[in-house]
Design goal:
Layout lengths: L4 H13 L4 H7 L4 H14 L2 E4 L3 E4 L4 H11 L11 E3 L4 H11 L3 E5 L5 E6 H8 L15 E2 L6 E2 L4 H11 L3 E8 L2 E9 H16 L1
Parallel strand pairs: 3-4, 7-8
Antiparallel strand pairs: 1-2, 4-5, 5-6, 8-9
Length: about 210
């Protein structure tokens, strides 16, 4: 986030004299409290300053990169996951390949009749199955899929950073977002490498505003 010249001046005043009231900051800048209010609000929301009732503003001591890191750590999966692309266990490998192509995804989640996770299909799984002279229209996906418990999952309340670490450590393209039910792990969403890229781009754009 790029600060204006006046905002940088405010930060320097608070660094030297904080805690200091908004009225005293305004007086030093020869401005009214109302004129200064938007700048103080921005600096407080961005994390450069903090405020305490009847005490005033004080400098948090955090750099821009530290504030950015804190912001990222607060992101939750529930605010960023996408609609999952699922297949039934008895669907054919041919149907899975078609679905992956039409939906433009790298991972398909296989579910049972309760929409609960039973397996995962990657591009590699489908490519491996398509090698040879097999009739892909008669081979069910449950034969080639990766099964539980060898599937890495995440939940809506998990930090988004945890999902990113799992994607990197497991070298996979996507994670199913699940919730616990009496029948098993119901698939409610997906987190992918594309999700992470989109979040970083949006964050960078917001920081430039």
């Amino acid at each position: 986030m790029e600060l204006s010249e006046r905002q940088e001046t405010i930060v320097e005043i608070v660094k030297k004299e904080g805690p200091i009231t908004g009225e005293n900051i305004a007086a030093q800048l020869a401005l009214t409290r109302a004129t200064l209010r938007p700048d103080l609000a921005i600096l407080t929301m961005a994390g450069f300053l903090d405020a305490r009732p009847r005490v005033g503003y004080f400098y948090t001591g955090k750099t821009g990169s530290e504030l950015l890191t804190e912001k990222i750590k607060k992101f939750k999966i529930k605010d960023h996951y996408a609609v999952p692309i699922v297949m039934k266990e008895d669907a054919s490998v041919y149907d899975a390949i078609s679905t992956m192509f039409l939906e433009d995804v790298g991972t398909l989640f296989v579910v049972d009749n309760h929409a609960c996770l039973t397996g995962v299909l990657s591009r590699k799984d489908l490519l491996r199955a398509s090698i040879g002279n097999q009739d892909l229209t008669v081979i069910p996906v449950h034969i080639i899929m990766t099964r539980m418990p060898n599937i890495t999952v995440c939940r809506r309340e998990d930090p988004l950073m945890d999902a990113a670490k799992k994607l990197i450590n497991k070298q996979i393209d996507g994670l199913p977002v699940v919730k616990d039910t009496e029948h098993g792990l119901e698939v409610v969403g997906r987190i992918t490498k594309t999700t992470m890229t989109r979040v970083l781009v949006e964050l960078a754009m917001n920081e430039q505003v």
